[in-house]
Structure formats: C-alpha cells, structure tokens
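Predict both folds.
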Amino acid sequence: MPVTIKIAPHDARPVHLGSTSTSPSSRDVLLKTLNQRSAEAGKIIQTSLTDERLKSINVHSQDHGLIRATYTAWNNHHHLVLRPEDIWFAILTQFSFYVNAHAEELRKSFVTHKGKKGLILRAPGENDMGLMCRNMTRLIDENIVDPDLRAWILPNFSTTTLDDEAVAAVIMMGTLQRYFEYSFDPSTCGIPSVTLLGEKEDWQEISRRIEKLKEYGEEPSRFAALLKPILREIVACFDAPVDDTFAADFWNRSFSYSGGSGADTMTGWITVFCFWDEDGKRLARVRDGVYLSMLENDIPRRLKDIICLELEMNKVPCGFVTVPVLYITPESERIECKLLAGFAGYEATATMAGQADVHETSTETGSSELDTLRPITAWWMYEFNN
C-alpha cells in the first residue's frame, strides 16, 4: 500500500500555477515541454494528454517532470507524490541517452545487423497510436539479441496504466533508434479474403503426401514438419465459418514485410515455401514461435506450432524447375532443349460469385473489376542456347 513520509516540520503551501484562468491546450504543453526544440512540432496526430483531459487537471509543463517537481516542492514547501513509473522512466530516459551516444560500441548487445533495419507495423484500420507503440515493441523484440530487454523496459507495477506502457514503448523505440527505422501503417494492407478451390479432401491429400518427405533425410523431414501445421490450418478453413477468428488470424500471419536502409525482409508462414534456394541450400533463418504480430493479443495456442522464417526479399528462390532434354525432330535433327515448368507469375481476375464463402466456388463473374490474384503455372519447351 502507499506510504507517506513526514520530512519537514512546516506545513505545505498552496501551489500557484500562474495567473491564467484557462487550461493550457495539449499543444501548449507540448511546445513548453520541447522548450528550445518547439519549432520542430507540427500538427498533433494523437496524444495521451488531450485538451479534454487538461481541463480536469492542473498542469505546469516542464522539460523534466521529476526533477522540476522535486525542486519546486522543495523550494516552495509543497507535498510530493511519486509513482514507481516516475523513477523508472527517469532511469530509462538516461539509459536511452547513453545508448544513442554509444550506439556502435553497444551494437552487438542489441542487434546483429548493420546500419538501420526498417520495422513496419501494419495494423489495418487501427487508429490507437498508443497501441501501435506497444505493439512495435513486439517487432523490436523479434529483431534484437536480448530476449529479456523488452520485459525489462516495460513497466508492470501495480500503478502501471496503458498510457505508461505506451510511454515505455516509445522510450524503448528511442533507445534503439540507431538500429531501427520505424513505420506505422494502419492502412488497409492485407488480404481481404482467401478462396480455397477444390475439396477439403484435396488439401488433406497434400497433408498425407508430405509424410513421404521424411524418407529423404533430416532437412526434408524438417521441411515436412514446418508444412504440417500450415496444411492443418488450411484444411480447418473448410469447416470454419466465413468470419472465423482463428482462420482470419492464421491468414493474417501468412506474410509480413519490413524495409529500411538495410535489406528488405519478409516473414510469415508463407516463407516456409522458401526453405531451400535454387542450389538446394537451406535459405531462410528459422525463428521458432515468432510472428510480426499486428495484434495486441498473444499468438493463439493452436497457432504456436507454426514456425516463422525470415527471408530477404531479394533472396526469394524461383518457383519453377528446368531440365535439359534432347529433341529429335521428325527429320532426325537433334536439338538441345530445355523444359521449364512451375510458377510463371500470377493472374489478375475479377471477384468470383460466392468468392467470399470458402464453401462455394463459381466461374460466374461477380465483379468486372480486376481485384483478385491467383498464382499461374505453365510449362515451356525451348531451344537451349548453350
């Protein structure tokens, strides 16, 4: 429980905040907090200290609330109230200054990459910037070497509020700003719907077939193990309602992208289909239990066995196979050729009637607008110019 310590023998004096009879605006407080850097402040996008909130509290803006409050209370004989967060944030801001001043010598303590890595937090329709800040720490956590750093920074005291968590999140972002570039993207990035053609039994058959991969060694066995939970969730879509939360969560985790001054990278379960490069060498880095989550909630239990890979965009392997073949023409001419078969890109189509329902398929056009993509496969036989 809270405790009060009696320090001086004299009584407290009233606090005088000035002669103004109107509450300061949020912008007023921001500009005074920034002090000599106030010219950098443009339009406020969002804040925890809103104009409405300022009408109900008495605020005297300063560049360091803990130091200024302690000094003023000491100098003018006022009581002082402190929360654990006040002391912790004072420590964290000091630590942030040090890390930014010694970023390169401390780099190995935080990250393995060079330069700045871009982190893009995509949350379609989300307008709570405090939530976005808190979730950005999850992205940071997935890209740093210290698994305890996030939990160490974020407060979880008995007095901690969501706004406190957002404050700590921004401090964490600022502490590591020499290593990352941050982007918030609440636009409608994402897949509106996925239609699975064929029958449930077709997808179950793929699940059965991947078992044979285990006969060919450790790496193919690992590949099969990565594929198994993905196919399980795809099959489950046939029994799920159109708006099933688990199904939507599964597909939302299929792909995520981060870009910046470093290499652009992709992650999500779709990267499992990039297990080897074209020379048969293991390609992507395995990140067990890690997702670039756009949600505040933890990963659903049933999705925890789905493993994420991380892959640089420019290292995505091709999706086709080539093979040399000797073509003997009817005239007995011998021509060195090659066959190519596999993915040749994707086709843009209009929405099919019933497309939103995974239980229905139709070739009738539901829309004349090209708003749907589907992979396209093809084969060629061509003369090989050796």
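Second protein follows, with its predicted structure tokens after the sequence.
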Amino acid sequence: MRARPDISSQSGMTLIEVMMVVFIIGLATGLVVLTIPPRPTPEQAT
C-alpha cells in the first residue's frame, strides 16, 4: 500500500501572502476614498 503524499505543508496561504492581500485592499480603499468628492457644507449649499 502506498502512502498518500503529504499536502498539508502546501495548503493554505502564508503570512506574507495574507499581508500582501491586506496591503493591496488598503491601497485600493485609500484610492477610492481620496477620489470621492467632498460633500458641500450647509453654508456652501445655499
């Protein structure tokens, strides 16, 4: 009987990969927030 290959060491994401995903999402969120035009204050609306 053959032993099944050990794939547990290759499954999942590494810490660096998770940190890169969080960093990219943070950059995208920052760009979206910076491109949203500011809402006028009540003094400017009148």
